[in-house]
Structure formats: structure tokens, C-alpha cells
């Protein structure tokens, strides 16, 4: 599949929205546009719907009309999509939603009117977010309000009620609760419908979503405690996103929670989450063997328990929630034996725990991403004689203060939007639009960080604005690196507390330090390679074996429509799901994965998706199906020690 290709020119809404008047009243604009859209969609009048959109408008759908994550751009593509799916999906009863009040949104030099609605389909209830700008169809005509971006999103399934709030369980059985939970957790009387590999935040949130939709699931975790993915990293680890952005579903943090969560504290919270939500987790357990039968559409798995016994399981679905990283990447360099024999120490950033043993040492950290900065800051604070950061390529730097301002504008704040609504808005943008708005936002954030960025440049630090100036998000989506969320290390670089070497590569180690390819050298007692991790596929090979991965799509990075590939959607193998992302992504997409699984289990959906056309010779708008070959592999479970899979890495 071809990768994401950004548009050659800015979307036209950037010109139309610039004409938005300060006096624009959002409510009547949204009411009039929505009434016209509702009438047209009820009549399945596709030309009338198209007339309400800009010529280069984007329609992004998540499951509600396509059972996939799709983006259609321009009148022709949207018209074809509606022709294929409008009647089939049974879209009806489009009405205004109280979830989001109409508003005028301004981002830098851009502005638009924003509103929301909801509608029903053949299989569930969905939400609609629409963003409007005035459009002049001809020189002699009057401006018309047209949508430049639509987002339709499946929220719930007909006949499926989550057992929360008013629908919670009324009376537990009159028996020992602990004894009952022990039988449930061990699956003494039944088999799980879903087997989840990995007990980090992705696995836990997915299990919670499924459980309260009435789907039984079991999490298999190699660690002896839930939350060790966060406890096991360097002890100063802390989320770089504020508390309002990192909430877990069903159990919000208490009002006393710190704005930024320490890694150890988050690990404890995940452990409590399992207890409070009665999730089924097998700790100190590893997957030994797994196979899928296309005839029965079931998985069989052998799980080694801490007692030494192997438990045989049969389930319908497998969710991989073992992290987005492969094995640690450490460049092959000569001279390591000489360096170590002379008393030196070499490690990867994933091995770093705290500054104990670094006192009085000369430390060189290879890399300039989040982990590199955090470790450099930690060791110099802990008493290292010196620390030098080796920056091999340019890095985007944005402070957590600036990030917090950005998230605050998105509704993630103490007095902000309900988190589900803020999530909907955040994920409703097609990538082409989000790239433009993020570029505007990054301009605002750079003003917040102006003094820091100028100070770094004076020190020779190589700065990066992100792809097409669109900031850190697109580095996350397309590189999984290349950025630093500043929590103080930048000022240490500016002040000279943390040394800086730019350019060149490590040539080899010597008995006294590091020799670089540009002819320079640095003395060192300890070298930390903060050089990242391999692709997810390498982690999957460790978990499921090489034969299994041959049929899987590569997750993460962007497909040609700008959506993330394979993750949370079609993985390439039937009844196998990727669940990967930071805390915010896990909160939002765990519901999308759970809805798909529940729809399959109830027969609401047969698994057919409105697929992306892969090449010019393939029929457009076909239904894509996963391969159905027999797979049998022997595996050892890997639970994502490459990183906590969160916003702090």
C-alpha cells in the first residue's frame, strides 16, 4: 500500500475561513446547515449533500458507515462513498446533539464554525462533527455556509447497553466475593471470548471496554505486577501530558491527583484499576503456543502459569497490547571490550533506572529524544561529574507548558469538555486538515517557548519544526521519535549544565571514551545509547513467531488516506487486533476496538469493510477480507519492555 502523501496545496478552507467575521453567530449557522443536511440525507439525495460541502471537503468516517477508518476527499470521492454506503448503512434521523454547543473556533489565522449532531444507522448510533466556512460559489452569488470537514463516528450498537451508571449491576450474588472473583479470573467454568496479550494501559482499557459491553476477556501479562511497564523505566519518569488528557475510562483520577503523573504512581493506579473494575489478569504468565482455525474461527492458546502448569484456552479474538516498540536499537561499534575493560559501562536507555552509580562519572548520552533528555537531566541532577548529549539529527522541542496550553484549548482542562467529547473533537480531524491546524498551533507554541528555542539555537542545538511545520504529532505518527517534551533539560543545555555535541556518528569506543566519525572525541565513563527501538514487527516476531507476522499488516505510520495503518482496525489476520497508543489514544480507540469485537460477536456485523483500493488494477470500493490460512506458532510472550507505550518514553 502506498503511504500517506500530503496535498500539494493548502486546503481551500484556509482562504474561506480567513473571511469569518468576529460577529459571526455559530448557533443559527449550524442550525440552518444541519437542517439542510438532515433533509438531504433522509432523502438519500447525494447531490444535495455534495452541495453543502466545499469542493475539496474531507469526510472522515470511523466505523459508522464503512466499518473502517476512512477519509474521502473532494466531491467525486465523497459522492462515490455515499452512493456505495448511504443506503446500505441505513443512515437516518440526523439531529442536533447536546454534546457540543455550536461555536466559532479560531486557530492562529484560521477560523470556522463548528457543530455536532447524531444519527442512527442500521447497526448503531453515531455522532457527526461538522466544520463550516462561508463559500462564494460565484462572483455574483451570496456566500453559502459549506462544510470543509465532516466526521462520522460509531458510538454504540443497537441493543448493547454498557453496564455502567444507571445500567450497573444491581445485586452481587450472595456468596464470597473473593471466591467468586477467583473462579471468574481463573475461568474455571468458561473460556474467555477475547485473549489480550499485555497488561499495560492499552490491554487494561480494552478489557474494561469489552467487559462492560458484556464480552468476557482475559489479559495475559508476563510481569508479576500490573503497572511494571511504567515502574520498570527510569525512576524519574513522568507523563508529559496533563491529568485531564491521560484519564482512563470509567475511573477518573481523584481531584487530588497531580497534574503530571509519576511513572511509579501511574503503575500503582493501573494495578488499582484492575481491582476496582474486576478485570481478569493472569500475572507471571507467558504465551507458549497459539493457533487459529479458519473453520471454527477460534484461537487455541497454551499459557504457562507461574505454578509451572500450562493452561489450554480457546477464544474467539486475540488483542495484541504489548507495546509499539521492537527490540532496543544499539549501533554496532568497535572497541566496546577495551572500553569495558578500562572500567567503562555501556547501556541502552531502556536499561536505565536511576542515577545511582553515576555519581562523579563522565556520561555521554547518544540521542536527543525524550529519553535522552530525561536521562541526561536525571544523571546530572544526581551528581554525575558531567553529561553530554550527542545530537545526531535535528529535534523538535516543545515545552510541557506549551503543550498544556494546546490541550487546554482543545477542552482538556479542569473546567473543560467531558473527556469523551474532547476526544471526539481531537480525533475528528482528517490528517490533511490536522496538519494545517497543527502548523498554526505550533506557531503559537513557538511563541510560548521563544526564549528557550532561541537559547538552544545559540548553543548550536539543531531544531526541527516537524513535517511541513506541523509539529510533534506528525513525528509521532510517521517516525515515532525526533522530539522532546521539555521539562527542564533544555534550560540545562542553554546554561551549559548539560553539554552538547552535534553531528557525526559514533565511530568506535576507546579505553577513555568515544571517537566520532567527524574526527572528534569525548571522554566518557558511561555511554547511554538513547537510540530508540526497532519496528513493532520485531516485537511481534518475539511474541508470535516469524511465520505469524508474514500475514500481518505493519501497524502505525499513515496509509494513503492519512489514517494510521492496521492498528485498531484490520490487522491482516482474522480476529486479531492491534491495540497500541499512549494513554489518550488507548482511551479513545479501546472503545472502537471493543465495538468491532462486540458487533462481530452479536452478528450485527459480518466483518466486511469498505476497503481502500490498493492499486490501480484492483476493483475500487470492494470488501476486504483477511487471509484465512491456518497459523500455528510457538511463542514466548513479550510485554513491551521497550517502553511504557505512553506519552512519556
TrEMBL record:
Keywords noted in UniProt: Oxidoreductase
Gene Ontology molecular-function annotations: flavin adenine dinucleotide binding; monooxygenase activity
SUPFAM superfamilies registered for this protein in UniProt: FAD/NAD(P)-binding domain, NTF2-like
Name of protein: FAD/NAD(P)-binding domain-containing protein
PANTHER family (alphabetical): FLAVIN-BINDING MONOOXYGENASE-LIKE PROTEIN (AFU_ORTHOLOGUE AFUA_4G09220)
InterPro entries associated with the record: Auxin_biosynth/cation_transpt, FAD/NAD-bd_sf, NTF2-like_dom_sf
UniProt keyword Glycoprotein, yes or no: no
